[in-house]
Design brief:
The complex is a heterodimer of chains A (about 230) and B (about 425). By secondary structure, chain A is of the alpha+beta class. Chain A contains 7 helices and 4 strands. In chain A, strands 2-1-3-4 form a 4-stranded mixed sheet, with helices on both faces. In chain A, helix 1 packs antiparallel against helix 2, helix 1 packs parallel to helix 3 and helix 2 packs antiparallel against helix 3. Chain B has one domain: Alpha-Beta Complex (Spore Coat Polysaccharide Biosynthesis Protein SpsA, Chain A), CATH 3.90.550.10. Classes of the chains: A alpha+beta (about 230), B alpha/beta (about 425).
């Protein structure tokens, strides 16, 4: 004999479990977006603070400018944003908003870097790479280029990589594309104001990076080794 | 794009699977008192029983199987054993004859030309004179109390026409056997829960016991695509005959010890399931066949295809992940780093929560299975093995079974690489 009530009761329980899973997932996903937004706000404050510091100390020597003038959180934020995008999808309204905000913060940080270069020259010269990618499935090498840039950042922690989604509808980003003459052929990289189209391996990029970055990294490694020897 | 479609299809599958699990758990828990009550019933006058032992080249295990039957705690004058040698080429017949001579009041040895398991069981049936009739494969072993426990189920309800036992894998040693130990433990719960719904799917070869009168009503065993135990269950449901499960009647069977042996056994079972289900398609979605016709049989049939899809989807996801890792390795090499803990990166998708709930329910099912059976299994050790290895086999044997059925290939017994692994 079939007990219809049991089947309905089972459906209600199963539906309740699925609904709970859905709401729990949405709750955590929203928390994640809030977390990214809060980091972005912190970075915005950092950048504003740095710009203000520049204005206040206009004529002060470079030695008076603090070492952490550029936000260290920008790179970690990129990773978190990428995770949020992979879970919610590229077309999600929150993701698009966060990416636009993130792109603007990167451009502001980039402008600050340029300011630092023009003021302090080689003594505090930050090295950066601007990277244009697409995740619409029309850039076969973008994933590989991402691996290369992540590895490069691990090798040279002082290197700043600004990643921009080519397809993002943002006027400031369009200006960047115009300045560096970026067309639809991707991946595209800008190093030392020079644009490179197509995939570049670790070796290619290492050759293109200025020697100051590599020398700084080597001396940092040597110092660490010497210090550790002394500790022993 | 393909991944999104595949992922979208996973949700109805997960919903159905969870629905199925919840239904079985509800059925089990609402009958918990009844199950406890079943365990206490004692029989005053035990019925006469005939146990058939069909064997084909089973010289290695036959003696132990017969010894386990002789040790049954059951009135000797009520238990007769018929060993049927199905044209063995080894010493099976000689061993059977030795036992028949030594225990002439209880054991009879018969021999015939090889014709398949169903012919051997039918020969025993023709010679059986008891009220109950059962079969024990010659690679399976019974616990002493099992027959008395089974008899009590026939005594408590005169409408009960068949009783299935609780089956465990005997001494699981290899990875493949340990994997099956978990699968069989799951079966302990499933059989009990299906029993509560009057929807037992199969009366397994090792020690399922029937009222002998049913064979005159529904006929003897048939070849039935080499899965005669499933076919006779379908025939019993068609004739509205009641099948119940006895969770304390322990039977131990030797599971295939190798991957090849396991694959061919499951291929035969999967094909037998598909082909017999098609032969009895009139049972599907018919109210008169109760939960079996309306729900469990159609669901089991659907899960054959959905199981294949789910396994392929998991495999596709795994391959995608491995491709990314491989591509990264080719591009920048391997540079291991200490992973950092950040709650931000926890997987919080709907699917991950649903899978977590299902996994918890699966562990609950195993726990119940272990509690029901008197022989507690060490499932915590074997569970990880099952979790890793079983999904690898599913697409292989289900996929091949579907292809073979569509291509109308012959479904044959395939001898496994070791005699020990043959489970007829």
């Amino acid at each position: 004999m079939i007990d219809a009530k049991k089947y309905i009761f089972t459906f209600v329980i199963t539906f309740a479990i699925f609904t709970t899973a859905f709401f729990t997932s949405t709750f955590f996903s929203n928390k994640r977006v809030e977390n990214v937004k809060s980091i972005q706000d912190n970075i915005a404050i950092d950048i504003l603070s740095s710009e203000t510091q520049f204005s206040l100390l206009g004529e002060v020597p470079c030695s008076n400018i603090s070492d952490n003038i550029l936000s260290p959180e920008l790179s970690a934020l990129g990773d978190k944003l990428s995770r949020t995008e992979s879970e919610r999808g590229s077309n999600d309204a929150d993701v698009v908003y966060l990416k636009k905000y993130y792109s603007l913060l990167q451009i502001k940080d980039y402008l600050l870097s340029k300011k630092l270069v023009s003021k302090c020259g080689a003594t505090k010269k930050p090295v950066f790479i601007i990277y244009f990618y697409s995740n619409k499935g029309d850039c076969a090498d973008c994933e590989k280029e991402g691996f290369v840039l992540t590895r490069l950042k691990e090798m040279y922690p002082d290197l700043r990589v600004y990643s921009f989604d080519y397809n993002l509808d943002l006027a400031a980003l369009d200006s960047m594309k115009t300045i560096y003459r970026i067309k639809s052929s991707l991946p595209a990289l800008v190093i030392e104001d020079k644009t490179y189209i197509g995939f570049k391996s670790i070796e290619d990029l290492t050759d293109l990076l200025p020697d100051t970055l590599k020398t700084a990294e080597e001396s940092s490694t040597t110092t660490k080794a010497t210090t550790s020897k002394r500790v022993k | 794009m393909i991944e999104n479609i595949l992922q979208g299809l996973m949700y109805p599958f997960l919903f159905l699977s969870m629905y199925f699990q919840v239904l079985l758990l509800i059925s089990f828990f609402e009958n918990k008192k009844k199950i406890k009550h079943e365990e206490k019933h004692e029989v005053k006058d035990y019925p006469s029983v005939t146990i058939a032992v069909p064997c084909w080249n089973e010289e290695k295990t036959l003696a132990a199987t017969l010894d386990s039957l002789l040790k049954l705690d059951y009135p000797k004058d009520k238990l007769s054993i018929i060993v049927v040698d199905d044209g063995s080429k080894d010493n099976t017949l000689q061993i059977a004859k030795e036992y028949a001579e030594k225990y002439s009041s209880q054991i009879t040895a018969l021999t015939k030309e090889n014709g398949g398991k169903h012919t051997a069981v039918n020969l025993a049936l023709e010679n059986a004179k008891g009220e109950l009739f059962g079969c024990l494969d010659a690679d399976s072993f019974v616990s002493p109390k099992s027959l008395k426990i089974i008899a009590s189920y026939f005594d408590v309800d005169k409408n009960t026409m068949a009783v299935t036992p609780c089956i465990h894998i005997r001494n699981p040693r290899t990875i493949i056997q340990r994997m099956q130990a978990i699968e069989y433990l799951m079966g302990v719960f499933l059989r009990k829960a299906f029993g509560q719904l009057d929807a037992i799917q199969v009366t397994p070869g090792p020690f399922s016991i029937f009222r002998q009168e049913i064979f005159s009503k529904i006929g003897n065993y048939r070849k039935a695509h080499n899965t005669e135990d499933f076919e006779i269950t379908l025939r019993m449901h068609k004739a509205h005959l009641k099948i119940v499960n006895s969770h304390k009647a322990l039977v131990y069977t030797v599971g295939p010890s190798t991957a090849k042996g396991f694959f061919y056994q499951r291929l035969r079972w999967a094909r037998g399931f598909l082909e017999n289900s098609l032969d009895y398609k009139e049972l599907f979605f018919k109210k008169e066949y109760g939960n079996f016709g309306m729900f469990t049989l159609p669901m089991a049939f659907l899960f054959m295809f959905y199981g294949l899809y789910a396994a392929l989807f998991s495999l596709f996801s795994l391959v995608s992940q491995l491709t990314i890792i491989f591509s990264k390795w080719l591009t920048v090499g391997i540079h291991p780093s200490v992973p950092t803990f950040d709650i931000f990166y926890f997987n919080t998708t709907v699917m991950s929560f649903v899978v977590m709930v299902m996994l918890t329910m699966f562990l609950l099912v195993l726990y119940i299975g272990n509690t029901l059976s008197d022989d507690k299994q060490e499932f915590y050790h074997n569970f990880p093995i099952f979790f890793v290895t079983y999904p690898l086999f599913v697409p292989l044997f289900i996929g091949r079974a579907i292809i073979d059925t569509l291509m109308k290939r012959k479904n044959e017994w395939v001898l496994q690489d070791t005699k020990e692994s043959v489970n007829r």
